[in-house]
Amino acid sequence: MTADLAVPSEGQLYERIAKRVGVEADQISRALASHGLKLTGSLPAKRELVVHRLICQGRKTGTTGSDGPFTVDMHLGRGPWAISSSINSAGKSSLLWALSFALRGEGFDAFCRPETVSWFRFVRADIQVGGAAASIRLYFDKPGRPSVRLLTADSIDDLLALEGQGEERIGVRLAATAEPSGVKALIGRFMMERLGLQSVSVWAAEANAPKDEDGNRDSAEQVHGWSSFFYAIALNSASDSLLLGPTLVGQLPVKLMQLFLDVPYAPELSRLATLRKAETQETNRVARRAKEDARAREEQVAPLYRALEEAQGRLQCLEASRPDVGRQLAAVDQAAAALTTCQAAHQEAADQHQAAKKGRQSDQRAERRAKQSSAARLLLGALEPEVCPRCDHEIDDERRAAEESEHQCSVCTRPLPLVPEDPQAQADALARIAARLAASKAAEDSCAATLAAAGQRLTAARAAYDQSVAQLAQARASDWFTLFDKAQREVHQLQGALTLATGGSSGDTPPALAAALAAVKSATNTSDEQGPDDETLLAAAAEVLKEVVDRHSRALFSELNDEIVQVAHDLGVTNLTSVNLSLGGQLNAVKSGSKHRFSAFSPVDRLRMRIAVVVGMIKVSRRRGIMSHPGLLLIDAPTADELTPEVTRQVLDTLYRTGEEVPGLQMIITSIEEVIWDIFPKERILTGAEGRELF
């Protein structure tokens, strides 16, 4: 291998990527690891898949005279093998279908004969895969829907020694089982792990997804595993226009060739490309959905916006013609202030009148008691308290009665002293009491007059206030205020409806759209202070990986091109001058002096070109000292449409020699040609009694 084709190490790749974006290699490693990517490189592959025994059991039905149970037991190994018969409909393709079901986890459509599917009840394939011995047992309770039991052993001989459906033997172990729904997954996982294969991701447009403004559809990741890889073992039928694999989507054929040529870092590039497309699509989806939501919301709220504009216009017109109620409001304020002043003055006069009245009543009681009570006359000129001078406790009628009847002081309840009555002193005291009573009556009359005057002023103020309020209410009761209130309520209601419809904002940009646009802007802009974002790092990693993958692919494809032409010539493809496999998966053949698309080959030549491609890949990889292809090739009727006996012999002879000469290759073909008996040794031909039905 030349220096420029040396496979760079993981560290070298990280350094190349880091240099391209101007960061440290550790940052590249962390960025890829955060997305589940690690550039581990590929070690030399040694993939091996050898079928040693095939057992099929079942019951034939619906045939002409050959219904009944059957058992087929075939012992095989490396090298070329032919499943042959001298008649058609002898079961050759059906046996390949049964074998493909065991190896793939589902039947291979190109080998399927629908009328025989229901015949199979049990299929057993004893194999060596990745150096491990295994026996895959399929049990068909329903046509085409088997359960599986996977056995392993210390050696293939331990498995080959088992009879029929038997499992009991020292060194034989049951490794796993699965019901019909899990058969494909179990066998696929087993093959992928044992052969050291990594799944391949392609990006494909969703069939029913709507197109965006640029005419692009939403896409989805398609993960291809063992079921798709099997197309490099069991080739597409002659009528199929695909070179290799189940689909052209995502350039899967070229990815399969890179896989089985062990192109370094091809799986990592595939996963990285898928990851970038997924993230880019999600960013675009966020922006598109935000725009769609904004458009839908705008269509929803447009009538509300128009109604709000009209209501605001009506409100502005009413505001311009607002009547002047300032004078009425000022009159109400003035009348209210005057009323408040009169109310305060009336309350003060009422309090003074009440106090004067209480004083007059007290003087009247004192006069009455002095005239009527002997005890009071005894104390004339003394205090006549209403309450206790110390504790303010009211002196009630009971104590006054006791003072009269029992001569006890109404204040201290002690006996009154026996003092002789002094008529002159009593007369003087009564005169003083009468003078005090006259003064209190005069004060009460004065306060009553003041209170009456304050009451008249209060009544007048209240009337003035009521009149000004009535005048203001009359002004406000006009049609203008009614229309203004209605217009104002309408504006407020429409603003509230817009707030709900736009997610909490009645502005021009709804919050959901603003948030989405901010997210898109954040995802697409790079901050110089923070350095390159993940998308920049992933893009640089993809560029570096693509350079490595493309360079090694071109070198290997160039070597493969020569092998394809040579094998195709040996298989009878005439006038083929050259092929030039492209990184897009095109064969780019030149046949009869002009460019020739693969789909333009005849069906029989398309099958031979597929054989040439796979055999060429095996030869190139073996020549480089690796076993990147499992080394098993299943071909159904390679000369089915060949009309020339010489070419038929040439094709079968080439296939036999290829199976013999290519190290580690096992080739199983089916054929109805008589010349097969001249080319293949009898021990390499699997056939039925007298060369007829195999079962």
What is the structure about, briefly put?
The protein is an alpha+beta fold. It has helices spanning 10-21, 25-34, 92-104, 156-160, 183-195, 226-229, 252-260, 266-320, 326-372, 374-378, 397-406, 423-476, 479-501, 511-524, 534-570, 603-623, 645-661, 676-679; strands at residues 49-60, 68-75, 79-84, 120-129, 132-142, 145-153, 172-178, 200-205, 219-224, 576-578, 589-591, 594-596, 632-635, 666-671, 685-686.
Q: What do you see in this structure?
A:
Helix content is about 50%, strand content about 15%. The chain has about 700 residues and is an alpha+beta fold. The strands form 4 sheets. A 6-stranded antiparallel beta sheet has the order 2-1-4-5-6-7. Strands 13-14-3-15 form a 4-stranded parallel beta sheet. Strands 10-11-12 form a 3-stranded antiparallel beta sheet, covered by helices on one side. Helix 1 packs across helix 15 and helix 8 packs antiparallel against helix 14.
List the helices and strands and how they pair.
Elements lengths: L9 H12 L3 H10 L14 E12 L7 E8 L3 E6 L7 H13 L15 E10 L2 E11 L2 E9 L2 H5 L11 E7 L4 H13 L4 E6 L13 E6 L1 H4 L22 H9 L5 H55 L5 H47 L1 H5 L18 H10 L16 H54 L2 H23 L9 H14 L9 H37 L5 E3 L10 E3 L2 E3 L6 H21 L8 E4 L9 H17 L4 E6 L4 H4 L5 E2 L9
List keywords for this structure.
alpha+beta, six-stranded antiparallel β-sheet, four-stranded parallel β-sheet, 695 residues
User: How many β strands by DSSP?
Assistant: 15
Name the beta content range: 5-15%
Which blocks of ≥5 consecutive residues have pLDDT under 50?
none
Sheet with the most strands, sense and barrel status: 6 strands, antiparallel
Mean pLDDT: 83
How many individual helices?
18
Assembly annotation:
single chain
Shape: elongated
**Distance between the terminal alpha carbons, to the nearest Å?**
51 Å
- How much helicity do the residues have? 40-55%
Structural class: alpha+beta
Strand order of the largest sheet: 2-1-4-5-6-7
